[in-house]
Amino acid sequence: MKLAELSGILNGRMVADLEVVSDHLELRFKDGSCLVIKRTANGVSAILHDVPGSATEAGTRPTRRQREYIEFIRSYMARHGVSPAESDIQDHFMVSAPSAHQMVKTLEQRGFIARRRDFFGSVVPRSIQVVID
User: Cα separation of 41 and 117, whole Å?
Assistant: First the structure.
């Protein structure tokens, strides 16, 4: 990918966080996407871990139950200073682990929350961020 193409893809995204990891740089955006920049033997590689269209783009609103989960995540973060683990969500709503996981995935897919991903694309534990107001 050429620099002009990358610039077009990143245009308008707001940076939420920048982290220097031992062998790469992670530039995280408020929409939940992450640009990973790494030095290679041939130069520099850049991988964009994008998220599906955001909630504001689609014009969608969360359902009542989804709002309950989002409010729980917000209040948990305010109380504990970190985002909840899926087991915390499971305990609070008294649902099964697969149900809690599916709701978190749905909230992320609909663009209501974002989760950080590591260099390999795996979700970082306790990295949920509420994206909508």
Answer: 24
What type of residue sits at position 39?
A: R
CATH of 3-130, one of 3.30.2310.20, 1.10.10.10, 3.40.50.2000, 3.50.50.60: 1.10.10.10
Q: What is the DSSP letter of 123?
A: E
Distance CA 112, CA 132 (A): 5
Between 98 and 46, residue with greater pLDDT: 98
Give which of 33, 39, 43 is closest to 9, Cα–Cα.
33
Nearest to 13 by CA among 70, 58, 62, 54: 54
Query: Pick from 56, 9, 32: which is nearest to 105 by CA?
Result: 32
What pLDDT digit, counting tens, does each position of 114-132 carry?
A: 998 888 888 899 999 998 8
Amino acid at 103: M
Q: Is the pLDDT of residue 54 over 60?
A: no
